[in-house]
UniProtKB/TrEMBL annotation:
Protein's UniProt name: T/G mismatch-specific endonuclease
Family: Belongs to the Vsr family.
Lineage of the organism: Bacteria, Bacillati, Actinomycetota, Actinomycetes, Pseudonocardiales
SUPFAM superfamilies documented for this protein: Restriction endonuclease-like
Alphabetized InterPro entries for the sequence: DNA_mismatch_endonuc_vsr (IPR004603), Restrct_endonuc-II-like (IPR011335)
Keywords, sorted A to Z: DNA damage, DNA repair, Endonuclease, Hydrolase, Nuclease
Any one GO biological process: mismatch repair
Coiled-coil stretches: none
GO MF term list: endonuclease activity; hydrolase activity
Organism of origin: Umezawaea tangerina
Length: 137
């Protein structure tokens, strides 16, 4: 894929986007802890796969991924930039394909992937994650 030139302002803004410990991620972890759950943070559920989950429940084999609406193409809030649109569409579609592949690889290894969108309320997402963890104990 050919990388299209972008402005310095866009490059600077995008480079400041956090990939770990985002606001929703921290809020979700706080709620999970409040619900009595204990977990690992930023771990590979399956060592052979070079993809980290944001929250991992090892004994239950549940991997939680907090996906950004822009970067992962949220059907509700995802946007398609007008500048360098082909580049960004390819980037976001590649992220979506990788997410689907990750879910498939983890499922084949006996894991359950839970996807949380950044726009979701942390409390509601935590309840959903808790239900998944408890159901697999």
């Amino acid at each position: 894929m050919e990388r299209l030139a972008t402005t310095e302002a866009v490059r600077a803004r995008m480079s400041k986007q956090r990939s770990r410990d985002t606001e929703i991620e921290v809020a979700l972890r706080r709620e999970l802890h409040r619900l009595g759950l204990r977990y690992r943070v930023h771990r590979r559920p399956v060592r052979a796969v070079r993809r980290e989950a944001d929250v991992v429940f090892g004994p239950s084999k549940v991997a939680v991924f907090v996906d950004g609406c822009f970067w992962h193409g949220c059907p509700e809030h995802g946007t398609w930039p007008k500048r360098n649109s082909e580049f960004w569409r390819a980037k976001i579609e590649t992220n979506r394909a990788r997410d689907a592949n990750t879910d498939l690889v983890l499922a084949d290894a006996g894991w359950l992937s839970v996807r949380v969108w950044e726009h979701e309320a942390a409390e509601a997402a935590a309840v959903r994650v808790r239900e998944a963890v408890v159901s697999r104990r």
